[in-house]
Amino acid sequence: MEMGSGPALSFRGVSMVFPDGTHALQETTFDVSPGEFVTVVGPSGCGKSTLLKIASGLHQPTTGKVVVDRKKLGYVFQDATLLQWRSVQRNVELLAELEGMPKGERAKRATDAIRTVGLAGFEAKYPKQLSGGMKMRASLARTLVLEPDVFLFDEPFGAVDEITRERLNDEVISLFQQRRFAGLFITHSIAEAVFLSTKVLVMSARPGKLVASYDVPFAYPRSPELRFDPEFARLSGEISHSLRGAHV
Ligand SMILES: Nc1ncnc2c1ncn2[C@@H]1O[C@H](COP(=O)(O)OP(=O)(O)O)[C@@H](O)[C@H]1O
Ligand SMILES: [Mg+2]
User: Which of 3, 21, 8 lies closest to 150, judged by CA?
Assistant: First the structure.
């Protein structure tokens, strides 16, 4: 066996019952390896965010085991959660600063990350001067600075318009191609899931459980036209069917 060829994130029989008795997740087992981009789709309230919180260590699971190197983990939330009183540059440096990264190093990484996400020239702007899409780019850059091996995304583009979302999807694909991290992405959008991923997992209503897994056969880079490919439509239809709880 090659060294380092194992999964970067591994869930084994993970379940979650909150102290108030809410059963949020049942017996969940899956792996994400470096160079894999796994997306989870499922109805609202089925336990998707809970899954990511367990992955990141914010919640301890009730049963089961998670294997991941949390020092190498990055987390992007639905809201950009930028600090209004900090410039783009200083927002993007924030997580690195909290980690105690030396100033010169974090400034350089932030400058690189800002360029990578297409925000060069906006370093000195403040969040209120940015569009929703630009805020999400800044949020991506802030996590990129940490150079994570495992990248968690919790419905990051749920609040932006469709065109902006598609552009941000292109950005995520380009990052994924450059860095080959292990990606775990949550979304409501089947099109987004298929467009981004190497694999799509479908979760049932609460208590969430993985009910289906689809390998996505398209090579990277993925062009925007892929969304009009008949095979793309076919796979999206199958996933949609599965999400509705039908037997396929
Ligand atoms: N800290 C908590 N305590 C109790 N119940 C919770 C807590 N966090 C989430 N839940 C419940 O667990 C279920 C799954 O929540 P969540 O993972 O946020 O769903 P999703 O992200 O799929 O919409 C929901 O019913 C939610 O109300
Ligand atoms: Mg959620």
Answer: 8
Distance CA 74, CA 139 (A): 11
Question: Cα–Cα distance between 198 and 183 in angstroms, integer?
Answer: 9
Q: Which residues are near ligand 1 (CB < 6 Å)?
A: 18, 20, 22, 24, 42, 44-50, 206
Which of 20, 22, 62, 211 has most ligand 1 atoms within 8 Å of its beta carbon, as the pocket-test mutant? Answer: 22
Q: Please give the DSSP secondary-structure letter assigned to residue 228.
A: G
Ligand sitting nearest the alpha carbon of 203: 1
The secondary element (H helix, E strand) that includes residue 162 is: helix 162-179
pLDDT-flagged residues of the chain (< 70): 1-4, 246-248
The pTM score is 0.93
Supply 151's token pair: 């990248």
Following DSSP, what letter does each residue of 87-132 receive, concatenated? -HHHHHTHHHHHTT--HHHHHHHHHHHHHHTT-TT-TT--GGGS-H
pLDDT of residue 246: 42
> Interior CA angle at 227 toward 226 and 228, to 5°?
90
Are the C-beta atoms of residues 76 and 139 closer than 8 Å to each other?
yes
